[in-house]
């Protein structure tokens, strides 16, 4: 596999820094390695804008450094890395300062994606792994982004933001989701697909996959039903925060926002009038890698993962 072209992508998100390394050959993107570091760069975000600084910025710089080290160990060179940021920097009043710090650390300038581009890439990545994907939702720390074949939506309903506003009050969270989205979403979602950390965590817990036993194929394509989300919310809510690290599949750094994230997803299913969605491990990161491959004449049409 070392003679194949390799590409990597890093996503500076509101709650975590994620990275993916892939190789491409014969029209197939193949998983090489990935990593997730909970950095909570949007610590303190509520409504509107916020500033990145202090320990949150230092945690994020450390996480980004680890992501680039993982890509280097995986054989991905600087010219084959895409570095992006989403709601984490879109709402930050000092995003220019943060971008400069990231550039100094990595040698690459992170591209701050606008909501439409983020949703489009999320849907493009999901479609690589889920043929026939309909609407695709990505529930992050700061925003909920939805990509459809014709439109993109972004709502300030991320798990970190909503937890700061409402705490662990599922009914209040769900009511806010219904109020913010309202009748914005018209038409049927088809094969609804979910990507992102909240959805991955849900499947990890449902499938009883330990965090250190993660393999994308163990999660990819799993159906998640409304009842599954309801049961997870009940079970986690009944577990004291300090004991949630014992829940198989739940990262410690996600324990304080997971109830809210699952509640947002549950409300979204209700608004769309569907009872389930398909989880995809192929997402924005896979799309970014495939875009780079396409620029070099090696666009992939399918994926392979362990």
Protein described:
This protein has a six-stranded mixed beta sheet, sandwiched between helices. Strands 8-7-6-9-11-10 form a six-stranded mixed beta sheet, with helices on both faces. Helix 1 packs parallel to helix 3. 39% of the residues lie in helices and 20% in strands. It is built from ten helices and twelve strands. It is an alpha/beta fold and 306 residues long. A hairpin with a 2-residue loop joins strand 2 and strand 3.
What are the defining features of this structure?
12 strands; alpha/beta; Nucleotidyltransferase, domain 5; 6-stranded mixed beta sheet; 10 helices; globular; about 300 residues; 2 domains
Highest CATH level, the class of the largest domain: Alpha Beta
Largest sheet: 6 strands, mixed
- Overall pLDDT metric: 95
CATH topology of the largest domain: Nucleotidyltransferase, domain 5
CATH superfamily of the largest domain: Exopolyphosphatase. Domain 2
Helix content: 25-40%
What is the CATH architecture assignment of the largest domain? 2-Layer Sandwich
Low-confidence segments, given as residue ranges, are none
Kindly report how far apart the N and C termini lie.
14 Å
Strand content: 15-25%
């Amino acid at each position: 596999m070392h003679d194949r072209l390799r590409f990597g992508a890093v996503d500076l998100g509101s709650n975590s820094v994620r990275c993916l390394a892939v190789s491409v050959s014969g029209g197939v993107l193949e998983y090489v390695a990935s990593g997730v570091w909970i950095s909570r760069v949007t610590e303190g975000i509520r409504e509107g804008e916020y500033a990145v600084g202090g320990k949150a910025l230092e945690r994020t710089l450390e996480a980004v450094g680890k992501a680039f080290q993982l890509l280097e160990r995986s054989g991905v060179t600087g010219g084959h890395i895409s570095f992006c940021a989403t709601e984490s920097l879109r709402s930050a009043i000092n995003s220019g300062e943060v971008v400069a710090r990231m550039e100094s650390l990595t040698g690459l300038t992170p591209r701050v994606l606008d909501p439409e581009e983020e949703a489009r890439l999320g849907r493009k990545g999901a479609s690589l792994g889920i043929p026939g994907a309909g609407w695709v939702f990505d529930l992050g720390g700061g925003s909920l982004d939805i990509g459809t074949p014709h439109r993109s939506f972004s709502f300030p309903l991320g798990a970190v933001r909503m937890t700061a506003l409402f705490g662990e009050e599922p009914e209040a969270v769900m009511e806010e989701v219904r109020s913010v989205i309202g009748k914005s979403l018209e038409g049927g979602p088809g094969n609804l697909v979910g990507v992102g950390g909240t959805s991955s965590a849900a499947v990890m817990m449902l499938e009883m996959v330990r965090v250190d036993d993660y393999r994308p194929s163990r999660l990819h394509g799993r159906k998640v039903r409304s009842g599954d989300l309801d049961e997870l919310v009940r079970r986690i809510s009944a577990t004291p925060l300090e004991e949630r690290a014992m829940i198989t599949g739940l990262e410690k750094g996600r324990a304080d926002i997971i109830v809210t994230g699952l509640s947002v997803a549950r409300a979204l299913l209700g608004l769309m009038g569907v009872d389930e969605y398909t989880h995809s491990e192929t997402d924005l990161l896979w799309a970014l890698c495939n875009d780079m491959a396409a620029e070099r004449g090696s666009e992939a049409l399918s994926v392979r993962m362990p």
